[in-house]
Amino acid sequence: MTDNQSAAVSFPDVAVLGAGTMGAGIAQVCAQAGAKVVLQDIRDDLVDKGLGRIRDFLQKGVDKGKVSAEQRDATLARVSVATDRAVACREADLVIEAVPEILELKNGLFRELAGVVTEDCVLASNTSSLSLAKVFDGVAAPERCIGMHFFNPVPLMKLLELVRTAQTSAATIERVTAFSRQLGKEPILVVDSPGFASSRLGVCLGLEAIRMVEAGVASAEDIDKAMVLGYGHPMGPLKLTDLVGLDVRLAIADYLRKELDHPGFEAPALMRRMVAEGKLGKKSGQGFYAW
Ligand code: CAA
């Protein structure tokens, strides 16, 4: 576990908007690195659930001997919660947005924030594939806007995909790159293009695996084993689709199909049927696997 509690971090005050799986994980790693974090969502029950996620993850870390009780307590002491977005953001040096993947929602939020945050606050989006030029469209100070794409489970995954728009400044990239390393992540830098580097490749593999289940090539378990044992992936593409959520991946696939105009991103009928039936993967208890 990364814990630079005594070290200065590039962004001492962070606001994380959205207290779902990703938002909670992002808040946790920022607090672990030594930042003061406000985790915001629109209702009390949502922020409580997000905080509960952080508490559970840290406790599991303690049980596994990866986190000390002191680290757990110090991390939790640095996280506070809010339901008011302006209150959460007004003192932040860095705002990381992790709300649902709806372009209008993200863009509206950043436009609203531009009038609230301090003059040198960096605005970051955790979008996994949406155009950042559109996410930040009309936002004042576009040179301080950047993509920070984290991976699930955030505290365990090493990668942080930084996405620059045509207007992101070199100073912003430099500061966010340094912060990524302080979080214990390895950053990569990608230009703003549909699906960036990670989702474009990852979703493509997942969709093809679903087409193979549909065509009866092999069972979900055996297709996953092919990638785990044959290619050294930590997890097969179908289990990973369950982990990410079939609904989340379907939305990305539809977006990439349109933006890249590539038939490889056409969502399989099986995937649409499973989403319509509520078989969303881990979060619903059933996907390609029973959870
Ligand atoms: N706190 C601290 N450490 C913990 C922990 C906790 N709560 N839980 C586990 N760990 C540690 C373990 O002790 C272990 O450490 P060592 O390697 O030192 O032994 C390590 O983390 C791995 O944990 P496990 O052994 O329990 O589990 P695993 O080996 O099965 O790995 C996994 C789990 C990291 C999730 C792995 O299966 C994996 O990498 N899966 C692929 C995940 C992936 O691809 N994610 C990306 C999804 S796509 C995405 O997120 C982008 C998007 O936009 C949707």
Describe this structure in words.
This protein has an eight-stranded mixed β-sheet with strand order 3-2-1-4-5-6-7-8. The chain is built from twelve helices and eight strands. With 291 residues, the chain is of the alpha/beta class. The mean pLDDT is 96. It folds into two domains: 3-191, NAD(P)-binding Rossmann-like Domain (Rossmann fold), CATH 3.40.50; 198-282, N-(1-d-carboxylethyl)-l-norvaline Dehydrogenase, domain 2, CATH 1.10.1040.10. The two termini are 27 Å apart. The protein has helices at residues 21-33, 44-63, 69-77, 85-89, 103-113, 132-135, 170-182, 198-214, 220-231, 237-244, 246-260, 269-276, and strands at residues 13-17, 36-40, 79-82, 94-97, 122-125, 145-149, 159-164, 186-191. Helix 1 crosses helix 3, helix 8 packs across helix 10 (237-244) and helix 8 crosses helix 11. Strand 1 (13-17), helix 1 (21-33) and strand 2 form a beta-alpha-beta unit. The site of acetoacetyl-coenzyme A has 21 residues, from helix 2, helix 8 and helix 10.
